[in-house]
Amino acid sequence: MTDAPLLSGDDLDAPLAWRNGHALSRRQYLADVRALASALPAAGPMFNVTADRYRFAVGLGAALLRGQDNLLPPNHTPDTVARLLALFPTTYGLTDEADSRVKLPMLRYPVDAARIDRPDAAIMPRIPRIPRIPIVALAAQVLTSGSTGAPVPHPKRWGLLVSNAQAGAARLARQMGRATLDGVTLVATVPAQHMYGFESSVLVALLGGAAFDAGRPFFPADIAAALARAPRPRVLVTTPFHLKMLLDAGIELPQLDLTLCATAPLAPQLAARAEAALGAPLMEIYGCTEAGQVASRRTTDGPEWQVYDGLTLSGGGAHTRVQGGHVPEPTSLADVLDVVDAQTFRLLGRSNDLINIAGKRSSLSHLNHHLNSVEGVHDGAFWLPVQDEADSNSVVRLVAFVVAPGVPAALLHEQVLRALRERLDAAFLPRRIIAVSALPREPTGKLPIEAFKAWAEQTLAGSATSVNPA
């Protein structure tokens, strides 16, 4: 096979997306892609910052038709954009907002000039067969922050993205007890520009038969409303951070058919709570930038993960590799895994997540799980300050940053410590507990290491609140 379709399925009148209860068909998508492709600059890559998920998908397809790739950086800060331009001088942006803060040559999504994104029966019959894209075509570049802060590109070829999306769609369908995802509606709280949102909403719809809600609801009431208007069977694509926020809101939630979660480890207790509240199983996805989506599990069934069909594991611990299917070359995983067999593993933590205090080892994700299980804590994260080189004999102690608006400040320290004493070894009890209004999370709920480090140091410098857990 030398090429693969931009769009799967034979029914072009089936919906690809829903916007405010109105269907946008796959046929209309092809018309919008061709119209936008004719308006794109001659050279790319495209930096697609459209907020509307359908328009993001149109931008993706249009760029592919023009032989251009899409940049997926970790954020849209001026520094990141400047570094992108240094790497890719011909980069241009696509936006659907009147005033974009991204400092690039910008093309505004031309909803008026080309009738893009509006049904028009006159142009529908003229849409030719579904375009096919060379499998070797560079479709996207996922950029992660390197040790110097410079974005590190990870190229994604169209053929491997297709294989990954199809494997993910097959696993989703199996979890739902279905042969395919035809007729399934996805509501995602994750931006399309993030690799998880890109794979599990946009690509799964384009290549797996599902349809997605065009919005990106964030607040609990908006998520509930989007779910309520989504035709069933419906799936919530979200993160542990968004899921906890949704459940803590205490609002009435519509019944789902599946909840999909990724980007951070999910506590089994939160998974069980979500399944009870949403009336549907919860499935976690495990993946990484280098290999894409690799495995899944139903969290309430236990700690074992099953890799996608066609993938196999080798090695173990901090030296685990995956290969097969959409991962043609052995690829190292950034986590510490307990490999049960070639298709099964348990996740022990990230290799850069492990800490050692007074000769005892744990992972920050494990500690954060217990911190966020404390009653009254809406969000929280541990931080391990850097060892003072001038005092190498001292033991560095953890700091906990906690968002707990309903707990009086005078009671917060003791309430958190009392709960943690029942869960953690004394070596991992925080020396300081600092109440904050919010953590510096990205829209996906992640806490980027460098950004969190800078924020933590600044917050510590301005706070004198501390407790002794002994």
C-alpha Rg (nearest Å): 23 Å
Overall shape: it is: globular
Strand arrangement across the biggest beta sheet:
3-2-12-11-13-14-15-16-17-22-21
DSSP strand content: 25-35%
* Main beta sheet strand tally, sense and closure: 11 strands, mixed
Task: Give a count of the beta strands, DSSP E runs of length 2 or more.
Answer: 27
Distance between the termini: 65 Å
| Content-based structural category | alpha/beta
Helix content: 25-40%
| Helical stretch tally | 11
Low-pLDDT sequence parts = 119-125, 389-393, 465-470
Mean of pLDDT: 87
Helices and strands in order, then pairings?
Elements: E1 3-5, E2 15-19, E3 22-25, H1 26-37, E4 46-48, H2 53-65, E5 70-72, H3 78-87, E6 92-95, E7 106-108, E8 132-134, E9 138-145, E10 151-157, H4 158-175, E11 185-188, H5 195-208, E12 211-213, H6 220-229, E13 234-238, H7 240-248, E14 258-261, H8 268-278, E15 282-288, E16 292-298, E17 304-307, E18 312-314, E19 321-324, E20 327-332, E21 335-341, E22 344-350, E23 354-357, E24 360-363, H9 364-371, E25 379-383, E26 399-403, H10 409-421, E27 432-435, H11 449-461
Parallel strand pairs: 2-12, 4-6, 5-9, 6-7, 11-12, 11-13, 13-14, 14-15, 26-27
Antiparallel strand pairs: 1-8, 2-3, 9-10, 15-16, 16-17, 17-22, 18-19, 19-20, 21-22, 23-24, 25-26
